[in-house]
């Protein structure tokens, strides 16, 4: 009788984390940045149908990197959760914090009990009536959650791009300013000897949570409007 193959819990968790991180790093980064009238999302994505940034509820948006089929299932589950909670109680009871808590439970359970972790990283954001009321939560593959302020970058070269965004971002920046900052970061060279890439508007997926809109704050930006903002 052969002896069962033993792997220590520490090594098993490390292997799962390495596997998930490698899968996430292969995807293109998503930049989320606060501006004076809301929260902006930008990523390099030529597809007009397979979105990485989506609306969840009236003032809540969802952004993701990693495996599309996995984060799309999480997005659909989030929409159902929000709709059910808003219908059962009140629309004001649907919050990014509650949604982030639900996602952490799912991600954490899959990471610890399933043979393969989810290769995803998420941002759940809610725009407040004022800038102080904005909420941005970053969720990782193992169910960890962080309350971010100002900006967040995930996927791909997140650490490098995060440094670029963090050094240039200031409170009160306008929408054109934060979009230009995000696109500069996305097109920045991977090494000192590289050249800055000019990413055309048609290759970008951009959306905002606009606090000035009366109810549904989410809006996609594309075409001439996005081109004007990037030039502006």
Automatic annotation (TrEMBL):
Keyword annotations of the record: Cytoplasm, Proteasome
Compartments where found: Cytoplasm
Family annotation (Pfam families): Proteasome
Function text: Component of the proteasome core, a large protease complex with broad specificity involved in protein degradation.
Keyword Cytoplasm tagged: yes
Protein's name according to its UniProt entry: Proteasome subunit alpha
GO cellular component: cytoplasm; proteasome core complex, alpha-subunit complex
Activity regulation summary: The formation of the proteasomal ATPase ARC-20S proteasome complex, likely via the docking of the C-termini of ARC into the intersubunit pockets in the alpha-rings, may trigger opening of the gate for substrate entry. Interconversion between the open-gate and close-gate conformations leads to a dynamic regulation of the 20S proteasome proteolysis activity.
Record GO terms (molecular function): threonine-type endopeptidase activity
Family note: Belongs to the peptidase T1A family.
Gene3D superfamilies named in the record: Glutamine Phosphoribosylpyrophosphate, subunit 1, domain 1
Keyword Cytoplasm included in the entry's annotation: yes
BP GO terms, sorted: modification-dependent protein catabolic process; proteasomal protein catabolic process
SUPFAM superfamilies: N-terminal nucleophile aminohydrolases (Ntn hydrolases)
Subunit structure: The 20S proteasome core is composed of 14 alpha and 14 beta subunits that assemble into four stacked heptameric rings, resulting in a barrel-shaped structure. The two inner rings, each composed of seven catalytic beta subunits, are sandwiched by two outer rings, each composed of seven alpha subunits. The catalytic chamber with the active sites is on the inside of the barrel. Has a gated structure, the ends of the cylinder being occluded by the N-termini of the alpha-subunits. Is capped by the proteasome-associated ATPase, ARC.
Domain of life: Bacteria
Listed InterPro entries: Ntn_hydrolases_N (IPR029055), Proteasome_alpha-type (IPR023332), Proteasome_asu_bac (IPR022296), Proteasome_sua/b (IPR001353)
Pathway terms, separated by semicolons: Protein degradation; proteasomal Pup-dependent pathway
